[in-house]
Design goal:
44% of the residues lie in helices and 0% in strands. By secondary structure, the chain is mainly alpha-helical. The protein is globular and about 35 Å long. InterPro entries: Ribosomal_bS18, Ribosomal_bS18_sf.
Length: 66
């Protein structure tokens, strides 16, 4: 089983301003990938989804990629 990215890199808080990290968990169309594909724990997946949605709302990430 894959190691959780956030626990492996000792990241305690998933920040919506950290766009480079958030992009790793989006597919080429800009959708959030599921936790089975990313290997992130369910708790971190929920935090990740919230951070991505927050970043989208503030215009840091696109809602859809063209």
């Amino acid at each position: 089983m894959k190691q959780d990215y956030f626990s492996a890199n000792n990241i305690k808080h998933i920040d919506y301003k950290d766009v480079e990290i958030l992009r790793k968990f989006l597919n080429p169309n800009g959708k959030i990938m599921n936790h089975k594909r990313t290997g992130v724990t369910a708790k971190n997946q929920r935090a990740l989804a919230g951070a991505v949605k927050n970043a989208r709302f503030l215009g840091l990430l696109p809602f859809v990629a063209k």
